[in-house]
Amino acid sequence: MEDEAKPVRQPQRRLNPPMMEVVKKEVIKLLQMGIIFPISDSKWVSPTQVVPKKTGVTVVENKHGELMPTRIQNGWRVCIDYRRLNAVTRKDFFPLPFIDQMLERLAGHKFYCFLDGYSGYFQVPIAPEDQEKTTFTCPFGTFAYRCMPFGLCNAPATFQRCMMSIFSEYVELFMEVFMDDFTIHGDSFDSCLLHLSLVLKNCLESNLVLNSEKCHFMVEEGIVLGHVISSKGIEVDKAKVEVIQSLPYPTTVKEIRSFLGHAGFYRRFIKDFSKIASPLCTLLQKEVEFIFSEDCKKAFNALKEKLVTAPIIQAPDWSLPFEIMCDASDYAVGAVLGQKVGRASHVIYYASTTLNDAQRNYATTEKEMLAVVYALEKFRSYLLGTKVIIYTDHAAIRFLMTKKEAKPRLIRWILLLSEFDVEIKDKKGMENLVADHLSRLVLGEGNNHIKDDIRGEFPDETLFSLKEIRPWYAHIVNFLVLNRFPPSFSKAQREKLQHDAKQYVWDEPYLWKHCKDQVIRRCIPETEIASILAFCHSHACGGHFGGKRTSMKVLECGFGGQAYSEMLMSIVNLVIIANAWATSLESTRCHKFLCSTWRSLMCGE
């Protein structure tokens, strides 16, 4: 109790006849059990409250003809409103286990036993000097508890501490405890039976009573905290999903918040949850008119569909490296934590979050880097001390860790990456319509004596002679890889090549350049100009912007190099043609801008 806390006596609350009968039966039962006793001079008095109680599980047939497990309501629970008492109570911060970690430890076993404490709180006695503080009032008098009731703010922590003291030697070994729910597992029938006998022995020694109606023995799957666990992994509770499926379109902000809360409970199973729910989250903002648009309906239905088709999540294998898939869009970032077991990959965790206004203004490289940083922070408990392989759409971010000069924000992110054993790899984006692999390079013009037929004993460098198409930067790559100058180069050209090569990094099959604006961009060959230009202008995400905006969008996408001359000249030509038909010459400013931009971007500056 906090110092100088003043006792509070509250009056009783009105109850209708049915609820009064429920309270009467509960009072008589508790008096007969010796859990409560009459009291008349207590300084603390709290009112009574009656709430529905769901016990037991039945199987019902849904509209699709499928049998679904469903909890049924067959009783009422009498609770006490201890809010005034809790406000002046010194809080107990004994920790409860993390649900996701507990489920991961439980998943993957063959047999399970599920035990439930019988009125678990009532099995914990209260110190005599504190019993009067639990006094409650009802139409039948004032009573105080000898045992711990529901509603006290420290009741969960106290009960968890008691259960941990009873089963501490078994927890995380073959048993998990969350309040009065105990789960025992084994990889064989005999081992599970042995573990069950050890747990029941401790229950007998500590006089812990179990509820036989809620106990299940030697089963292959079961429900734990709203999730189905089995040897296959972790799944969503179909009974809960069925309830969400039947919800109509929300008509108020409160209903949207309720829906997102229920769906968000399973966001671990939904890829890009934040991205999908973005239209709904917008309606939760202040000063936003509530209009449930078509985008909101699509998001609402998409989340329902994602829940129905949610995958089975696997528990992590701590002896294997973790893999992270990162991606970023204009308004959200997402990440997937997984592992590769043999040749098969399985998902451990989906995570996503929306970007704030400042983050939405980041460059593309920075957004991709932000996705990596978000993934590392979200999955930190999994990744520390283990090997981590990160796949991202923007391979340029791997070079940020070696940059000597960068923005303060990037430096902070680089420091975060240094805490982990990280390997960054490139991956193909789901919506990437630009060519993902460059043509193989050829050696200089003076190396025509190398034949196309390659023998197995040839060194890897000779693979550069396979293709006929030669990008503009072939001599740069050949110098970086083979330290070889083109035979036709003069002394001045060789010195310039040697100087310019310091700005480039070859990471097969891409060439990257450190630009003056502290951004690393991929150099593109001439063969990709048309596809990049079409993607940034004509694609569904392009927006069909004008020359100025399209050229800047190409720049934001992280592309650079000499091929900009042809790409931007194509835009310039279109602008010139449009200007020829214009009645005013004022629009030629776009032409001037593109010409200056072209000169600065020719070398990826």
UniProtKB/TrEMBL annotation:
It comes from the Eukaryota. Keywords: Endonuclease, Hydrolase, Nuclease, Nucleotidyltransferase, RNA-directed DNA polymerase, Transferase. Residues 73-228 form the Reverse transcriptase domain. The keyword Nucleotidyltransferase applies. Gene3D superfamilies: 1.10.340.70, 3.30.70.270, HIV Type 1 Reverse Transcriptase, subunit A, domain 1. Residues 317-420 form the Reverse transcriptase RNase H-like domain. It holds the Pfam family RT_RNaseH. GO terms for molecular function: endonuclease activity; hydrolase activity; RNA-directed DNA polymerase activity. This is Reverse transcriptase domain-containing protein.
